[in-house]
Specification:
single chain, mainly alpha, Spore Coat Polysaccharide Biosynthesis Protein SpsA, Chain A, two-stranded antiparallel ribbon, two-stranded antiparallel sheet, 7% strand, glycosyltransferase, disulfide bond, Galactosyltransferase C-terminal domain-containing protein, Nucleotide-diphossugar_trans
Length: 211
């Protein structure tokens, strides 16, 4: 039976989780660290989060405009939560999760819209590459190690995004990883370089290896 009952996604109400990511840029959450817990005076106090799930947030309109809103080069959906999260932290802001603010998400059993001319295209992967190339600096390689096919995606012109980053005097992604997202490598260590790239194919049977 379908109801409007509110269900928590992560654990009990007194255990708090913050948004992180794995190197393929899949959104994850992890229990707040000791560093975050030690800085809180009560359980309802907001706490810092490196990223958010996308679309479920409140932001000052003037600040959102100063950040350039969402990157207009991102298509349909996918990657916007990282683009905005990285931009907020690296360009002088911060993201707080508020325990006393409850947001419910009603999932449909079908998608009520199509992708139009982009149907069948790697929209999400292409969006991710655009975000990676704009914000992740030398950490860009870890995304490609995790998602090697993305190396061939064309993210389009990112010159405006790079200019925005320069004009706002944004910090480096290394700063973000060490000062904000320090707990990401604890759950998802930096990946070793791939020994080889490409498809694995048996020359006798012409069959490819898949995992």
């Amino acid at each position: 039976m379908t109801t409007w009952e509110y269900r928590r996604v992560y654990g009990a109400a007194d255990v708090h989780f913050r948004g992180i990511f794995e190197w393929g840029l899949l959104y994850k959450e992890t229990e707040i660290s000791k560093e975050e817990k030690d800085g809180r005076k009560h359980n309802s106090q907001p706490f810092r989060s490196p990223t958010h799930a996308g679309g479920l947030f409140a932001i000052d309109k003037k600040w959102f405009a100063e950040l350039g809103y969402y990157d207009s080069g991102l298509q349909i959906w996918g990657g916007e939560q990282y683009e905005l999260s990285f931009k907020i932290w690296m360009c002088g802001g911060g993201i707080l999760f508020v325990p006393c603010s409850h947001v419910g998400h009603v999932y449909r059993n079908h998608m009520p819209y199509g992708f139009g001319k982009l149907t069948g295209k790697p929209v999400i992967s292409t969006n991710m590459v655009r975000v990676v190339k704009t914000w992740m600096d030398e950490y860009e390689k870890y995304y490609y190690i995790r998602e090697p096919q993305a190396r061939h995606r064309n993210p389009g012109d990112i010159s405006e995004q790079l200019a925005l980053r320069k004009n706002l005097q944004c910090k480096s992604f290394d700063w973000f990883m060490k000062k904000v997202a320090y707990d990401v490598p604890k759950s998802y260590p930096l990946l070793p370089d791939n020994d080889v790239w490409g498809e694995g194919k048996n020359p006798k049977t012409s069959k490819c290896i898949d995992t």
